[in-house]
TrEMBL record:
GO molecular function: cyclic-guanylate-specific phosphodiesterase activity
Any Pfam family: EAL
All residue ranges annotated as the GGDEF domain in the record: 163-295
Protein name, entry field: Bifunctional diguanylate cyclase/phosphodiesterase
Length: 566
């Protein structure tokens, strides 16, 4: 039975009518709460943004529970209970809600209670304001956004403090891979999780902001380089592991750029732009790194921008400036030439020959590796077919990236080139660097299976340097494992590297996987390496990467040269 109000007070129906009238004239959401009969009603306009079950309820907890951000549920229900008990005439609190897009929305609740003569609340009248519209909140993470960062920096700079402060710009590496694999909603959850972790790690004299796309900024006041390095180390240690959200595992690293006040700039946007430049440079240098801005770094960035434009121009001009070099691969047992690895080289019209470590990351980041990769495949298979007219079982190894394998027409194009040059499929070895495994292991298993059935050999390059587990190899249909050159340097029979190589070779052979040792440069290294019985050797001892003409003259021109000399 519905209980009656004090006749001198406004009743629930009258309050509801007022709410409905106000709803058309404001962006706020008005609510009325009948404490006596425990009925809560809110403005209909809130249903446009939040997926609430109607505008009226008599179960407040069930009504709101799934829309309140987990960390704020305690403060929400505690504060609503305070309003209900009428411990004060006016109540105010802020919390985060999740809207229909699963975005985090900061809102404020304000409510006043109408009490009877005994001081007991009978009706609560109030409104909810989306403070994200008026302040500077990022909807995905609930963190402060770029506008708020700019505002805070301007206020800080106006006070002209004399202590060192910094802007750290932190970008998630290869975040597009996560979006492609799991979808954008999952990607938003990853961004939210990373933001929460950074917020939990930073010290009290720092604030974290969500800025563009997959980037965050940390405004770290009264600091120094050592403290900044320590903070990034903590963030990096957290990121360098697999994480789980909704029963899906993901892996991603972060790159960070830092600019210091007043050393690098005394204007807010200039300081931010220089930190962002340093972050971009960290990504270009290989990712998962921290870089401090410097004039030298800025000059290097300008050089890189020039190189990037020249790379695009080379591709537009039918790959002018690109060429393939070939490094011999020999059988460890008798030094006989097995084949060669095709290695991409590029000459800048302004700077001359550029290291692959400098231009290949840009090709991958920009997606240009798709076009260049097709050119590499065609050129390498064309030369392989020609050399097979002299060395019948000559094999060619071609490096491919995860990005290329993701392309739907990659296998179609490869098949087209195989048919064009009438080359045997088992003459081709596709090499994938070990660091690519973390991107999407299930996808790679499927791709490797596809190529195995198709008749192409698959190799894991740079083994021992990435995120691998020897256990993975049981599931991957791999033909060859290439042990990275870093394990060959300063090699002795009693060293850890020798034990590692010996163990890997024995294990691979036990599961019918062949092993190639890279980076063998001296007779002493070869003598030690050969004791573990690898299948193939690749290194300067047997031959450096050479142009097509020089490789042919050195290794293929006459039958006598097929036994490569040390």
């Amino acid at each position: 039975m519905r209980m009656e109000y004090n006749s001198k007070m406004i009743n629930f129906d009258q309050a509801s009518t007022i709410c409905d009238l106000l709803d058309n004239n404001t962006e706020d959401y008005f609510f009325v709460w009948d404490i006596i009969n425990d009925i809560f009603k809110i403005s209909p306009s809130i249903l446009k943004e939040f997926d609430l079950e109607g505008t009226t309820t008599n179960n407040l907890k069930k009504y709101w529970d799934k829309f309140i951000y987990d960390e704020d549920k305690e403060v929400f229900f505690y504060s609503m209970n305070k309003i209900k008990l009428g411990t004060s005439d006016m109540n105010f609190f802020e919390c985060r809600l999740l809207n229909k897009k699963n975005e985090i929305i900061w809102v404020s609740f304000r409510g006043s209670s109408l009490k009877d003569k005994n001081g007991h609340s009978q009706i609560i009248f109030g409104y909810i304001t989306n403070i994200g519209k008026n302040t500077k909140i990022d909807f995905i993470t609930g963190l402060l956004n770029r506008s708020k960062l700019q505002e805070d920096m301007i206020n800080f700079f106006n006070k002209r403090f004399d202590f060192i402060s910094s802007i750290m710009v932190i970008g998630i590496d290869d975040f597009k891979n996560i979006n492609e694999k799991y979808g954008y909603l999952f990607g938003d959850k990853v961004i939210r999780s990373v933001g929460e972790k950074i917020a939990s790690i930073i010290p009290k004299n720092a604030n974290v902001y969500k800025i563009d796309g997959d980037k965050f900024a940390v405004f770290y006041k009264d600091t120094n380089k050592q403290k900044i390095k320590s903070l990034f180390k903590s963030i990096k240690e957290y990121m360098n592991a697999f994480h789980e959200i909704d029963n899906n595992y993901y892996f991603c690293t972060v790159s960070c750029g830092v600019a210091l006040y007043p050393n690098d700039a005394v204007k807010s946007m200039e300081l931010f732009e220089r930190a962002n430049s340093a972050m971009e440079f960290a990504k270009i240098k290989g990712k998962n790194k921290l870089e401090f801005f410097s004039k030298k770094l800025y000059s290097r960035k300008i050089r890189l921008l020039t190189l990037q434009e020249q790379l695009r121009e080379s591709i537009r001009n039918n790959f002018q400036g690109f060429q393939l070099y070939y490094q011999p691969q020999v059988k460890a047992s008798n030094y006989e030439l097995k084949g060669a690895e095709a290695l991409l080289r590029w000459n800048s019209p302004e700077f001359g020959q550029i290291s692959p470590l400098e231009f290949i990351p840009f090709l991958e980041e920009s997606g240009l590796i798709i076009q260049v990769g097709k050119w590499v495949i065609r050129e390498a298979l064309k030369m392989c077919r020609y050399w097979q007219s002299i060395v019948e079982d000559f094999k060619i190894s071609i490096n491919v990236s995860y990005i290329q394998l993701k392309e739907e027409d990659f296998k179609i194009y490869l098949d087209k080139c195989i048919n064009e040059f009438q080359i045997k499929k088992n003459s081709i070895i596709l090499e994938l660097t070990e660091s690519c495994w973390a991107s999407d292991f299930k996808f790679l298993i499927k791709k490797f299976d596809d190529f195995e059935r198709y008749g192409i050999n698959m190799a894991i390059d740079d083994f021992g340097t990435g995120y691998s587990s020897l256990n993975y190899l049981r599931n991957l249909p791999v033909d060859i494992v290439k042990i990275d050159r870093s394990f060959v340097r300063q090699l002795t029979e009693k060293s850890y590297n020798f034990t590692f190589i010996e163990y890997v070779v024995k294990l691979m052979h036990s599961i019918n996987i062949r092993v190639c040792i890279e980076g063998v440069e001296t007779s002493e290294e070869f003598e030690i390496i050969n004791k573990v019985n690898p299948d193939y050797i690749q290194g300067y001892l047997f031959g450096k990467p050479e142009s097509t003409k020089v490789f042919y003259e050195k290794f293929i021109n006459t039958k006598e040269q097929l036994l490569v000399k040390i």
